Amino acid sequence: MSDKPKLAMYWASSCGGCEIATLNIHEHILDVDAVFDIAFFPCIADFKIKDVQGYPDGYIDVCLFNGAIRTSENEEMAHLLRQKSKVLVAFGSCAYEGCIPALSNLTTREATLNTVYLDNPTIDNPNRIFPQPVTEVPEGTLFLPVFYHTVKSLDQVVKVDYTIPGCPPEPHQIWAVLQAVVTALTQGVPLPPSGVVGASNVAVCEECPRQRNVKKIKRFYRPYEVVPDPDICLLEQGLMCLGIATRGGCGALCPQVGMGCRGCYGAVPGVEDQGAKMVTAIASVMDVGKPGELDEVKLEQEIEAIFDTIPDPAGTFYRFSMAHSILRRTRVNGYDRG
Amino acid sequence: MAEKQFEPLIIGFTCNWCSYRAADLAGMSRAKYPPNIRLIRLMCSGRMDPEFALKALRSGADGVIITGCHPGECHYLEQNYKALRRYLLLRRTLKQFGIEPERVRLIWASAAEGARLAQELTKAVEEIRALGPLSWHNVVAADGDRPLELQHLEEVAA
Ligand code: FES
Q1: Do A60 and A119 share a domain, yes or no?
Q2: Partner residues linked to A87 by β-bridges
Q3: Segment B73-83 mean pLDDT
Q4: What residues of B are in contact with residue A285 (Cβ under 8 Å)?
Q5: Does residue A338 fall inside a structural domain?
Q6: Distance (Å, rounded) from C-alpha A243 to C-alpha A250?
Q7: Measured in angstroms, how far is the CA atom of residue A111 from the centroid of ligand 1?
Q8: 0.80 exceeded by the pTM?
Q9: Number of domains in chain A
Q10: Cβ(A148)–Cβ(A332) below 8 Å
């Protein structure tokens, strides 16, 4: 290999969308190729783990690590790539804060495996066969990674230098970060301070062109139930939007096409728990009960009736940030969820 | 030897006006309530950020009690209405995390209701005691995963 800086991209528990977003920087990919040597990138080039193991420590200059930590293999790869990389980037929502895979922290490992291997209309598994970490076959012993009980973010298993949020990160943001790295590597400029890069420091609402008035919400609607007004804040129209508690940088793409922000860039800076902030925000804008209007019992009933129109609060408010939430997972053998 | 009864740790968030005064009155009139509750005074129940409750539960509390002025009597007009809505939505969310709704409660008390507040707090403590320990660090540590590091809590002089 040449003496160009080395770039790696690896997927742990993820969907592959982060790779697609990276390739979506279009012709800039040629610049990436001109500046970097690809040292490991299973999606686009044929490398083996053995190759990575053979590299000296710190051989990879920049490693983009996408995907959450769901299995022992994910965790081993995180440790290996940390050891072999100078700069390790938690790339995308899964590596950053668990994302969709971490929603399974709201249930048990057993329930997840049952859904995948048994209770599914398209599954035929009469012998109830589940994947096992160790299986003896006539030819020898087979090993599979251990499926963890709790999905974790990358920074919960190794030290992370930078985080690029998003599900997936927006290509122009990826390119901006890569450019900064390229300049640093080729012109000796210092790297940006570690932390979140490729995003803004204010909420999605700041980037949203919809018109905001006073929010007074009487009930929530599922997206299929109404056709939203194209110009007015979606939350005001009773459509769940996490823009208020979510870091911007995406350009408010979803709200612009009538879909409330799902929250994929994670909490705004300074907030530890995105879900808790959504509870605060949503509760603040409900239009029910003014002093002297209702008695205490009636008041509670009316509020509960409005909350009945939010079918899955934890899954909605923590859709992307479960692994980074304060509680992180549901209690096993705990209270039976009603 | 008789088994030692479980002593729950409960964090209480009281508003500065009616409900803290009610707790004060309870003390002054020697109305007893169990010592399991550690009170934190907020200016208003509307200051009660759901994050406070989550942090308390994660850091070892077995329950959280929020107290405020009766609806219509908040010193900041409607803030206790917000507190009520946040509390109800938080309880729904906590249910999905496997946390019994009884562990998080909201009690209204006017400054004159010292005795009633003491009664309500006692009832809440007994119900949380009956639920047993929450021990959230074990929840996250379940099944070989690394335990949750508890943040170092700073000792603050009272
Ligand atoms: S001042 Fe007591 S609840 Fe607002």
Answers
A1: no
A2: A62
A3: 91
A4: none
A5: no
A6: 11
A7: 43
A8: yes
A9: 3
A10: no
Domain spans of chain B, in order of start: 10-136
Q: How far is the CA of B36 from the centre of ligand 1 (A)?
A: 23
- The DSSP symbol for A198 reads S
Top mutation candidate among B13, B42, B79 for ligand 1, by most atoms within 8 Å of CB: B79
Instruction: Collect all residues of chain A within an 8 Å Cβ-Cβ radius of residue B42.
Output: none
* Cβ B80 under 6 angstroms from ligand 1: yes
Distance, CA of B56 to chain centre: 9
Q: Are strands A195-196 and B10-15 parallel, antiparallel or unpaired?
A: unpaired
The second-level CATH assignment, the architecture, of B10-136 is: 3-Layer(aba) Sandwich (3.40)
Find the domain containing A303 and state its range: 204-307
**Are A75 and A119 members of one domain?**
no
Spans of chain A, pLDDT less than 70: 1, 333-338
Residue A258 CB contacts under 8 Å (≥ 6 apart), including other chains: A223, A227, A228, A230, A234
B40, B80, B81, B106: residue to mutate for ligand 1 pocket, most atoms within 8 A of CB? B80
B22 Cβ below 6 A of ligand 1: no
**Residue A215 pLDDT:** 86
Going by pLDDT thresholds of 50, 70 and 90, the confidence category of residue B148 is very low
CB of B74 shorter than 6 A to ligand 1: yes
Does the structure show a pLDDT above 50 at B150? no
Minimum distance, in Å, between the CA of residue B61 and any CA atom of chain A: 13
Report the pLDDT value the prediction gives residue A336, as an integer from 0 to 100.
40
What is the distance between the alpha carbons of residues A93 and A71, in angstroms, rounded to a whole number?
A: 17
**A52 located within any domain:** yes
- Neighbouring CB atoms inside 10 A of A222's CB total 12
pLDDT at B1 over 80: no
CA of B85 to the centre of ligand 1 (A): 14
